[in-house]
Amino acid sequence: MLCGYAFMFLCVPNICGLLTPCVIGMPNTSTRPKRGRRNRRVPREDPARNELVSRSLESAQQCLFNQDYGTAFVHYLLVLNLAPVLKDFASESFRFTLFKWADELDSLGRIQDLFDCYEQALELFPTDEVIINSMGEHLFRMGFRDEAAGHFHKALKLKPDYPEAKENFYRVANWLVERWHFLMLNDRRRNHKYQQAIQKAVEGGCNTVLDIGTGTGILGMCAKKAGAAEVYACELSKTMYELACEVVTANGMNGRIKILHMKSLEMEVPKDIPKRVSLVVTETVDAGLFGEGIIESLIHAWNHLLLPPQSTQDPSRPPSQAGRVIPAGATVFGMAVQCLEIRRHHRLCVSEIGGLATAAAGELHSPVSCSSEDDSTEPYTTERLSRLPGGYTPLTEPFNALDIDFNNVQELEGLCSREVSRVRLPVTGEGLLDALAVWFQLHLDQQSSLSTGPKEDTCWEQAIYPVQTPHNFPLRPGDELIVEISCRDAYLRLCSVAVARDGREFRLDDCLDPDKPRNNPGPSGNPNPSLNAEAELCSALACLGTEQSSGPRDYTMLECAEMALLNNQPYHDSFRRALAKLITNLKDARSVQGPSQGQGLEVMPLTDPPSGPMDPGPDPFYVLDVSEGFSVLSLMAASQGQVKAYSSVEKTQHQAVLRRLARANGVPEEALEFWLNQVEDEQAVLQRPSREKLWSAIILDCVETCGLVRQKLMEKATLARCLLEDGGQIFPERIVLYGMLVESDTLLLESAVQGQEPTLGFNIAPFINQFTVPVHVFLDLSTLQCRHLSDSVELFILDLMNTNANYTNRDVKVQASASGRVTAVPFWYQIHLNEEISLSTFNQDSHWKQAAVVLHQPLAVREGDWVRLAVTLQKSSISISASIEEEAGETGTVDSVRVR
Ligand code: 44T
């Protein structure tokens, strides 16, 4: 968002010519409305009404011309409500007015008004995919992702080839129907076990059933099929509820399962279900077991929706008169691990980035913390340990963290008020403590259970509780790790609090004195911690107290990807070299041109005479960094000397970190400005050069962490190019997309319900597969289970310095290096900062993940076959189709179609 915002200001004063709204064709009022059918009644002519319509239309046009969009919108509403027959003619200008007015309302924070306008617009144009899609964009920006995704989906259903909606939908489909639905439905073992357990319970007498969080309706249908007399199901997501209704109908159970669109916690007897049920089935569990609120749901269910449990006093009560839950309970396990991949996403590991010492940054945390009281933190994140690049080292044996009986309401209720329990874990491996990994066994009934363990053959992720302390603590066998286990806000929390060694206990969270040496774990970790373990330990111990901590520490929060970026030294070194080269070139050019006046910059003098590396003499070089989120690139530019850098870092806390780093690294205060503060402060804006071609360098953020090209990248590049001084540069100047052919069943299992066979005998796949998205994001290609069927091949080039030179379609030929089924084409980018310096997004130190296009149909290839990949980049979303090339060709033979 920031980028767009910054660019708004960037372009308005400088290249307004480029942005002047195009003249929208106004409806021709003299055109006669179409005649109705012969037998339809001709509406009575009403001269006063006609007069009003035509006057309002005129006013609407005038207001539009004057850019008074609010008034124009009201006039259009009036016109179109009074004279719907004008809809065809006025739709374009009406939409234009709506979008302009909505943008204004958005920037004024008038959110309710904004959505009211969309509601009114949709009353007039209920099937207008452009309006629906645009409303989705506003919803998305405001954080209503489910609703936003619903709008994109609707727009796409109305017009399947509408590129904007397609791009938006693909980006958010994961929120609408999360990917684990596919994994779950493809997990035959899991399906079968649930079915067996439900069937046994129903056959044993549980004949009234409630499925909490029914998803596609599968567990409810199992209960019905097993012979339950009454089955109810509830689902809080609107999209999933509608899907469940479709699925149940398609399986001939319409009316036999009552599906409610609500959260189970809101259900009441007899309002929603006529009487208490004898069985609750649910799979509302996430990798951390409790994250979907199962504890709260079950407490509520026992108190309001379920029959009383089978009591030990009266075991004779028949099962139909007693309540029970599937799953019956769970056992939670934990294990301490060393894992560089986790570490670099949660802690600052480097003492230097791009020539800047990082010590002054202060304590930086990722938003994942089990000890924090901060609302913006999550207690855990999730990963598939087996798929983490670089692997992990267990430091303890798996330990039993918790046993929970879902059939015991007292135990469920007591969980949150239960004392914090402490476990002492013998350390069995040598390494740095990076996280506690957690998984569980879900006991469906006495006989059957499912495990989400990292060693099991399952698709489930584990919960990761990263260590947030700034120290590096090398553990070794003989130590004891002390872990606290608690349950707060119905989340399970695990926290490593101390290490016991040689009879002493060292607390891990205590480093109150910021002047004490920080012990950064190092960018690549220490492959053999024992090498300098003693030195590390001494320094770690110097930071550790044995007495109680005296209160919360001050820290700044960075997103995990921002932290990984900060730890990415090759990234920053490349930028530093590329910036240095540019500045040197520009200096040379200036010295040839003569004195700085030759630049014609009308720069107001900087308030204080700059000191340090900033040369007060010549005009500075202006560098703008519009990276998303936290970035130190502007500061690195400023540290080059004779540079005035503008950062688009938005958060005050983040700006403070950059200021601290600037001070500590001898960068004069005035060499670094914050773009948004600048545009809000008119005085400061005046101090900026007024020349149009302002910037020596503009740094663009091209690739999202998830592995996709950033939206509107090429538009931004076009604008940025207009703002460069002669010899100035956009970083990067070019990005090249690479890909390869792979056979990966894993990707298929995550993208759609596979195979022709019904799922547990039910017809579910065609319904849920409507939500299949061809592009997978956030992949770790280095650990993805797949067979490579070709070498990597260049798929596409995006030239940011010459956006006209880009094409939208390209055919690429690639030779199969092995026989197999091509199921996907993973892709990544080489980001060229200049001719010599480039970065890959498929790299061990990278904060980027990779993405992949999953082919619509797998393509069988034999070794040596030539495959033609038709690659399309529409907006910034990529699509690829593959076919066998009958005639032999040369690797990488390319036919490109220049479109723009
Ligand atoms: N878990 C798989 C599936 N919901 C995630 O809207 C299982 C993941 C899994 N609806 C490890 C192990 C496993 N009332 O559609 C969602 C959600 C809905 C509710 C009504 C409620 N109280 C709720 C709570 C959630 O239920 C559906 C499923 S919840 C997510 C399940 C071996 N990791």
TrEMBL record:
Chain intervals for the UniProt region annotation (Disordered): 30-50, 364-383, 509-531
Compartment(s) of residence: Cytoplasm
Enzyme class: transferase
Composition skew (Basic residues), residue ranges: 32-41
GO molecular function: histone methyltransferase activity; protein-arginine omega-N symmetric methyltransferase activity
InterPro entries: Arg_MeTrfase (IPR025799), PRMT_dom (IPR055135), SAM-dependent_MTases_sf (IPR029063), TPR-like_helical_dom_sf (IPR011990), TPR_rpt (IPR019734)
Principal subcellular localisation of the protein: cytoplasm
Domain (Protein arginine N-methyltransferase): residue spans on this chain: 395-488, 785-879
Domain of life of the native organism: Eukaryota
GO cellular component, one term: cytoplasm
Biased composition range(s): Basic and acidic residues: 509-518
Catalytically driven reaction(s): L-arginyl-[protein] + 2 S-adenosyl-L-methionine = N(omega),N(omega)'-dimethyl-L-arginyl-[protein] + 2 S-adenosyl-L-homocysteine + 2 H(+)
Biased composition range(s): Low complexity: 519-531
One Pfam family here: PRMT_C
TPR repeats: 129-162
One GO term (biological process): methylation
Protein name per its UniProtKB record: Protein arginine N-methyltransferase 9
Organism phylogeny: Eukaryota, Metazoa, Chordata, Craniata, Vertebrata
Gene that encodes it: LOC112261295
